[in-house]
Amino acid sequence: MNVSMTASAMAKQYIYNWNMKLNKNNSLFTNGSTPLSGHINPYEDPWMDITNRSSSEWQRMIPVDEDVANQVRNMVKEDFVKRYGMTDGSPEHIDDRANLIKNYTKTLPGEQRLAATWTLGQVVSEEAARLKSIILKHDPSWTYGKPFDTSILDEDPSNHLDIYV
Fold first, then answer.
1. Where are the alpha helices (DSSP H) in the chain?
2. pLDDT at residue number 135
3. Which of 13, 58, 113, 139 is 20 to 30 Å from 48 by CA-CA measure?
4. 29 and 68 housed in the same domain
């Protein structure tokens, strides 16, 4: 996105992009034909589509693999240790966690995938809150990005959300 765009231009671009996304299933193929009726995109997981679904269908905790939950926790802790609670914002860094979760959820039955994704997102939030509370016990003025003694994060490693299969 061009940083010199006005708010109005950004809003128009957003609407344009949204409309293009909505029309992607109705678009013509390069040869001019249209998809067959009932066509399912083989590159998207239909179980991950929240369209017309109640949030209660997928915003719920379900048991997940302990190893995957611990890998997610370790990624959060790495953000705190290396960047004092901040992510580096690089696509590679962000994609690591997303790919871990995506690859794990693809091993689950379809009806569990959204809830497992949401559960692991809760693991991320809970772990970040847990680490933040440890830091704040030692430095009440701490904010994200402010350096701290990272060795304090080794305290109380078992006080986390247990949601294992």
1. 7-22, 55-58, 66-83, 91-105, 113-138
2. 94
3. 13
4. no
